[in-house]
Amino acid sequence: MWANIFFAVLLAGMCVYFVMWGLEYTLHQQVLLFMVASFFGIFMAFNIGGNDVANSFGTSVGAGTLTVTQALAVAAIFEVSGAVLAGAAVTDTIRSGIVDISKLGVSPNQFIYLMLSALAAAAFWLLFATKKGLPVSATHAIIGGIVGSSIVLGISMGGTELAFSTVKWSKIGEIAISWVVSPLLGGLLSYILYGLIKRNILAYNDKVEVRVKSLKARKKTLEREQKERFEALNDDEKLPYTTALLRDQEAFNEGECQRDELETEYYRSLHDIENERSNLDTLKALKTWVPLIAALGAVIMTAMVVFKGLKNTGLNLSTLHASLVMGMIGAMVWLTAFIYTKTIRGKHKEDLGKATFIMFSWMQVFTACAFAFSHGSNDIANAVGPFVAILDVIKENAIAAKASVPAPVILTFGVSLIVGLWFIGKEVIQTVGTNLTEMHPASGFAAELAAAAVVMGASSLGIPVSSTHILVGAVLGIGIVNKNTNWKLMKPIGLAWVVTLPAAACISALFFVVLSAVM
Fold it and tell me: Distance between alpha carbon 4 and the CA centroid of its chain, in Å?
């Protein structure tokens, strides 16, 4: 209850501050339009938090690495930091170049209605999907919203042919292809990566744990048989046998005796068991594979932060410099992970499952942080982009091709994003982290790392993909390896992906008609 009150008060306070700032910023022009646009902009950010951010943290929560509260804390720091530090660049007023409204010659107010309708439509569609627990793409929702309102505007100004000519249908085709390509790429890489982890680490650990348990059972059996054998001796035999046992015990505890030097069969058998145990390298898989996988993860997540997260900060690293940074961080992570595996002692050396999941839990936390930073620096633009376009038109009474993003906008929308995660994000977290397949730290890390790698690769190649679809595909890849995928749940999710763009377009068209009539 107190957390709910805190976040509600926080959002209300930020909204009051934002309205006071915004009225000054827009010189008190078109106050009603500014208030309506602010409401829907903040509402859109709220729903991005409930769906996109929740989707990003679903694997961490589902794996048990983070609680919902801890995920919120990570999101609060890294999502908002990514938005404020790296999301405040110049933003295209027409998202993704999806429509060309220059053909229409629209007035400033018509442009505002267009963007406002897109924001409202995307926000309500995201809210609907979130309450159903369906992870969908906020980018596709806002694009659909812009397409819908643009078509209605075009029809009113020049007829159907002109309206449909403003839409770049090739881009719509690329988005449709991404419905298949995004989850397929995420699932394929996740399948390969987790298959590697399961085969070379988890399976080896299971085999070693079975051998350790077998040795322990043999040792207990030997002790029981020794006790029975001793009790079967007569009094004359017990004294010399006890003396021999004491001599063997002293030699055995010193640890330098040979098997043939021992007098009793009990200590010879015990020597064989301990010798077999000492020759069993329980940490072999952890020492060999975990540092390499951790280093690979560090390189990929560093690349994501540098090339996707920090690209808008003015930190213009050359490819060589960025590669050196990635290499250094990867080397440090490899060394840290390797040293950690060398320090594993005591029960963790035999409870390999726990030791492995501890290491992957740490790795997954860092992966989640990097993913959150990159997500905050990029996907917040789905709310910020259209809103800033509206804000700029209200202030300047003219349509500009681009508009700079004021810091209060980023900060307020960032806070709204976190509050949305807290209040309505649990359903999507449940879907991605638990309902699609069972997750643990190793599989959760594999899913996040695979998704990050595909996002980076697709971005560098200019392939339009959805991080939401990729991560869901990555989770499905985990389920395929473990043979426990919930394919029934994928039917409504897949349908929601396909429906997102046309649904947002229809809602936006309706909003545009209402706004044009009322305003």
Answer: 24
